[in-house]
Amino acid sequence: MLRGRHIFDKGASKLLISRLRNIQKKEGYLSEENLKGVSKETKIPITRVYEVATFYSFFNVKKKGKHVIRLCNSPACLVNGSENILDIFEKLLGIKLGQTTEDGNFTLETTSCIGCCDESPAALVDEKAHTNLNEDKIKEIIEKCK
Amino acid sequence: MQVTKKTEFKGFEKAVNLKPEEVIQVVKKSGLKGRGGANFSTGLKWEFTRKSPNPTKVVICNADEGEPGTFKDKLILTENPSIVIEGIAIAAYAIGAKFAYIYLRAEYEYLKENLEKAIEEYKAELDKIELNIDIVMGAGAYICGDETAIMNSIQELRGEPHAKPPYPVESGLCNYPTTINNVATLANVPLIMLDEWDDLRLYSLSGNLDSPGVYEMPLGITTKELIEKGTPKEEIKALFFGCAGGCLPYDPEMKLDVESVNEKGAMLGSCTVIAIGKSQSIPKICKNIAEFFVHESCGKCTPCREGNFRVLEIINKIVENKADEDDLNALEDLAIFINKTSLCGLGQASNTHIKTALKYFREEFTK
Prior knowledge:
The complex is a heterodimer. Chain A is α+β, with helices and mostly antiparallel strands.
C-alpha cells in the first residue's frame, strides 16, 4: 500500500514520523485533533496515524509536563546509582515516577539507555543529556527549567 | 583513534576513480564486517545490493544505537560526523544509490546538527554522484535498530520488524534493494579506501569503573586488557555484553572474540561490555534487563510480547526472595522457548541474560 517512490520524493521532513515529532515539539503532545489533522493532510487513515503515534516512547498522546525528564534506566546507570538519582528527583519535584508536577512544569519518567554509559547516571531533559548526575546537578537542572 | 581521523572525502575521491565493482572488491577484500553486532561482510552486502535486478537502490545508515551500554556511534557522530557521510557516499557509489537515509535515534537529537553540517559541507562531492542524504529522526524505539523495523519506521508504519527473507538487499525500503550499514561500519570505509585502516573494534566499556569510555582495540584481546583500561572501582565479577548479549563471569584470560564469547553462551554483538562489580546483584540487573525487554518488545509476535512479561513476573519473585526451584526451572524453559520461537533478533536475544545468568550465577538466584 505504501510501496513506491513517494517516500523518496517526500523528503524526510514530510514523513509521518517527522510530522508527529514537529507537532509534539510545538504543542507538547499529540492531541486527537492534531492526529486527525495529520490524517486529513496526508490521507493516511487515522487508525494508522494513531498506531504510529502510540508506538514510540517519545510520543505522547496525553498532555505531559512542559519539561520531560527521562532518567536512564540501563544496567550501566543502575550499577552507578540511578535508583538513588530517581529518589532525589522524586524528593525535589515532590512527585513519583510517571507523574507530572502540579504546576505542569515537569514530568518524571525513566527511559531505555540514552548512550551516556561512560558518564552515568544520566538523564535526558527534553532533548539535552545531563550526565554524572548528583543532587547538586539535579537542583541546578530543576532551577534552570523553572 | 582511527575513526576520528579527518579524511575529508579523500577516500571518496579514490573510490570514484575506481569502478563501483572495484570499490566493492576493495571492501570485500579488507574483511570489514558489520559493526552493528551481526558481523556480516560489508562488501558482500554491497555486492548483493548492487547485483539485485531493480536499478533503484537505497543506502540506510543505522544510527539508532540502542543497545544498552553502547555509545561508540555517539562518539563518531560527535567527533567525526563527516567520515560517516563519506562512508555513506562511498557505499552509495558502490551499489549505485541516489537515495540515502540516516536513521538517527531520538535520544541523539543533539547530534543531528553535526550531521547536517557535514552533509552541507560536502554537498558538492555528493552532487558528483547525485546523492541525496536525508536524516530521519526516530522517536524512541529500541526495535528500530533492527534493519526491517527501520525501514517500516521510515515507510510511515509502526517500527515493527518482519521475517526475512526477503532480505533488504533484495527488497528493502519501498521494495527497492537496500544496504543498511551501522554508523561505525561506514566510518571504517573511507579509511579502507585510503589504505589507512586496521581492523579494530570500538569497545563501549562501562560499569563499575573509574575510566569507562570507548576503546579502539582489535578482536581477540583478553578481557583483562580491556577491563584494565577502565580501571575497576572494585573487584569485577561479571561482564554483561549489553542487554541482549548475556553475561559471563569475569575471566581475565578470556579472549574477546565472537567465537570465544559464543562458546560460553553469550554474544559479543557490537562489543559492548558492562563490567559489574562484586557488590552488585546479578538478579537485580537481570530484572532491569527484563523490564527493558518488556518495554521494548514491539508486541508483534506472541513469544516475545507475552513471554518476556512472564519472565519479569518470575524475576520479580526472585528479587523479592519468594521464588523456589520450580520458578527457576520455569524461567529457564521460558528463556529457551522465547529464544527459539521469536520472530526477530530482539526476541531471540531477549533472554540471553537469563540463560547465562542462571548458568553462571545460579546461586545468587536461590539466596
